[in-house]
Structure formats: C-alpha cells, structure tokens
Amino acid sequence: MRMVQKLGALGVRDPRVLAAMSAVERHRFVDSALVNQAYEDTSLPIGLGQTISKPNVVARMIELLLAGHTGADGRLGRVLEVGTGCGYQAAVLSRVAKEVYSIERLRGLHDRARDNLRHLRLANVHLLFGDGMAGFPQGAPYAGIIAAAGGDAVPPQWTEQLAEGGRIVAPMVMAQGRQALVMIEKTAGRLVQTVLESVHFVPLKSGTA
Ligand code: SAH
After folding, report:
1. N or C terminus: which one in the chain shows less Cβ crowding within 10 Å?
2. What is the CATH number of the domain that holds 113?
C-alpha cells in the first residue's frame, strides 16, 4: 500500500492503474534475496542480464495505454506486451485489459514468468516465446502495445497490428543514444507520435535465445 501511495504522490492518478498495482504482489516476482526491496521504486535484476521495471514506470506506461481506447467497462481490449521478463507487468495488465499477449525472446525468462504466474491462474494472460519485434499477428488488432525494451525505432509490425484508436507505449533510442518514452496513436488510419520523458530500459533485441 505504501508503494501505491507513493505512485499517487509521483503523479499516477488513474484509479484503475492504482487498483491493479495494489492487487499484484511484486515480491513474488523477484529473487528471494531481493524481496526486501520489492516495493521500492527501483528496477531490480531478474536474471539473464534483464530487469523488472520500476513500479512508477510500469504504472505510468499503463496509465498512458488506458487513456487511449477502452471499452464501456473502462477496460482495454487485447494488449500485446513485448518483453515478458518475470511476468510482473503482464499480471498488472491482466487487471486492466480483456486479453494480454506477452512475448519474451529469452527461453529462461519465458519459463520463469510461467512459474511466477502459475499461482495467480490468470486465464486472460497468454505467454508466448518468440521475437516480439514481429509483434504477434494472431492476436491483432491490439488496443494497446507496450514494450519493456527499447530499440532504435518502433517496428512497423507493431503499428500494423495496432487497432484504430489504439496506442503504442514504448521506449525508443533517440539521437545521442538516449532513450525516451514514445507514444504512438492510430487515429483515422494516421499515426501520431509523441516523445515523452527520458527512460532507461534494456535493449530490444532480435531473434530468440
Ligand atoms: N515487463 C517485464 C520487464 C522485463 S525487461 C517485467 O515485468 O519483468 C524486458 C524484457 O524484454 C527482457 O526480458 C528481454 O529479454 C525482453 N526482450 C528484449 N527484446 C525482445 C524481443 N525482441 N522480443 C521479446 N522480448 C524481448
């Protein structure tokens, strides 16, 4: 609850996001040696050189997605997450979206996420192993696409698989090699890109391992 209060103080306002963040126990997704840091606003290692994102960044990105196209019930339709990692963000997304397709390119983390999520029995989370740079056409079109890894550009497959009225929220490498959060909206077939605050995510890589 302290973590969620802090998110509120940091500017996260959407009650749907705050409710989802208070429902998912972040300590279940990190190594036992890091459990005492699980509710701090910090990224933490999850193995294979990857990290679980800061709670504030997870909340911010989901808030941006939810400000796009939701159903009458205030939920997003289908969402694609690129970079499952430990599965934490997928669990949070499962509370604000009807279906979550989450893809991971590292077999070890894909398996770990499956273990981490098993006890939650989230019937609307679909964990996929593969290269998320190609998106996941079988689940398209998506109301939202969220990436937890940053590349030099947003792959064209993501914008193709985005529904009308949908949003992509992703880190992207800008000039000078610095990353910024980027939001792309599809309205009337047009793509509108907004560059937001600077962020620090692991790199988006192609292929699987
Ligand atoms: N959302 C995750 C964050 C994991 S870090 C969580 O809550 O834990 C980002 C993840 O993106 C890493 O696990 C990395 O392996 C993965 N990744 C990087 N490039 C990818 C790609 N092309 N397709 C799928 N996953 C990718």
Report:
1. N
2. 3.40.50.150
Q: Is residue 209 part of a domain?
A: no
- With a 6 A CB cut-off, is 7 part of the ligand 1 pocket? no
Does the residue 136 lie in any domain?
yes
Distances (CA, A) of 167 to 10, 77, 79, 101, 117: 23, 12, 10, 15, 26
Whether ligand 1 lies within 6 angstroms of the CB of 157 is answered as: no
The reported pTM is 0.98
Range of 112's domain?
Answer: 2-203
Q: Is the CB of 43 under 6 A from ligand 1?
A: no
Find the 188 Cα to ligand 1 centroid distance in Å: 30
- The C-alpha atoms of residue 124 and residue 114 are separated, in whole angstroms, by 13
At residue 170's C-alpha, the angle toward residues 167 and 171, to 5°, is 155
What does the pLDDT profile of the chain (209 residues) look like in tens digits? 999 999 999 999 999 999 999 999 999 999 999 999 999 999 999 999 999 999 999 999 999 999 988 899 999 999 999 999 999 999 999 999 999 999 999 999 999 999 999 999 999 999 999 999 999 999 999 999 999 999 999 999 999 999 999 999 999 999 888 999 999 999 998 999 999 999 999 999 999 99
- Cβ 89 under 6 angstroms from ligand 1: yes
Q: Whose CA is nearest to atom 4 of ligand 1?
A: 85
Identified catalytic residue from 22, 43, 53, 198: 53
> How many domains, in total, are found in the chain?
1
Quote the ligand 1 centre to 84 CA distance (angstroms): 5
Q: Is 32 a catalytic residue?
A: no
Q: 208 in a domain, yes or no?
A: no
